[in-house]
Structures are given as structure tokens and as C-alpha cells.
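WARN  no MSA supplied for this record, continuing single-sequence
INFO  ligand: D-xylitol-5-phosphate
INFO  echoing inputs
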Amino acid sequence: MQPLIAPSILSADFARLGEEVQDVLEAGADVVHFDVMDNHYVPNLTIGPMVCKALRNYGISAPIDVHLMVKPVDRIIPDFAKAGASYITFHPEASEHIDRTLQTIKEHGCKAGLVFNPATPLHYLDHVMDKLDVILLMSVNPGFGGQSFIPSTLEKLRQVRQRIDASGREIRLEVDGGVNADNIKDIAAAGADMFVAGSAIFNQPSYADAISKMRQQISQ
Ligand code: DX5
Ligand code: ZN
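INFO  complex generated
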């Protein structure tokens, strides 16, 4: 599958969010990564469906990848689907009924995925591979941008890549946290094909340069 670069708007200037998202898409991004934090499941508070809808109303037509770091999960899903989410991913620990939550996402017409924290075991994949469009491995503990990539994620990526390949299904393998132009090559080699990067893009003077450096690294 074609690699996808998904800038995390957590590191964007929220006062100018529409422009920031437009800029980063014009700079070559494929997907908008949208971090939803509730100050309960994770120790930070960010944005909800109204902001997703506002981006759609502003004219953003690229896929929006909603990463839910909220508990409970289920009741916010219809709101995000109506607000224009393309992908909705959630942490299995935050859902009482993982299979039901996945079904709810799909019934609302979105692509569904599970997110694994660095220490979350992969057994949550065991009975739901047929319902997944994406598997997201966190390479930092969720809650904040600008943290360092946790190296043990590489081995975990390799394990998930094997499981995806064995399933024969088209499931994206996404990685989120501390991704930058220096480590993205190893991350791609471990099997990822969807790369979230917040600070490594939005803290750079040129988003286009930042994104094209990443693409160069993964196309070599
Ligand atoms: C962390 C978020 C990430 C984060 C990535 O909880 O899920 O999407 O914003 O930011 P960087 O790339 O700066 O680690
Ligand atoms: Zn995220």
C-alpha cells in the first residue's frame, strides 16, 4: 500500500487551525491526524466533533483520521461520523465491548481501527482482525506531542506486520509518536505504512521540506 503521511494537528497553531491544515495538505500530506483527548483516559484535553465539522466546513476534503483517546468511546462515534471523520480509532482499554465499538464505527460509514499503547498487548487483535481497516501502534505514551520514539515499537511493528500479512486483508499499519525524518526509515522497514508526525512537521519552518524529507527516507 502507498505510504501515507498524516500530520498530527496537535502541534498546529490552534488559533489558525483551518489555514494550518490547508497548508500542511498543500505541502504534501495525505491525511489529517486528529487527536481527541478527554483529560480522563489521557492527561490532556483537546478537540471534539465540532472542530472536525468546522474543518470540513472550511473546505478540508482530505481524509481525517480521528484518534480517540477518550473513555467511554461509543457515544462520541456517531458525532464524529456526522462531523466528517474518515477513520476512527480507539484504545481497546477504553471500550467495554471492543467488537461492538468497531461495528458501531463501521455502521456509521467510517474506517475502524484499534490503537495499542506501548505496553498494551497485541492479544486484543485476536478475534477482530476481520473488522479492522487500520492498526495504530503508539510509539509514545498518549497525551502529548513532542515525546521521543520508544524503540521497542519497532519489534511490535514487525509482529503486527506479520499478522496483517497472514490475514491477507488490506489493513493499514499506522505509527504515532516521535516519528521524524531520522527514524522514519527504520519504522517503515519494520512494516508501517501510515506515519503520524506532529512536532516533526509543525515545528519546522517549511512543512513541504519536512514532508518531502520523510517521503525520501521511505522511498529509498
Ligand atoms: C500523542 C498523539 C500524537 C502526537 C504525535 O498522544 O496521539 O498524535 O500528537 O506528536 P509527535 O509527532 O510530536 O510525537
Ligand atoms: Zn494520535
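The beta strands are 4-7, 32-37, 64-69, 87-90, 111-116, 134-138, 172-176, 194-197.
INFO  checksum written, moving to next record
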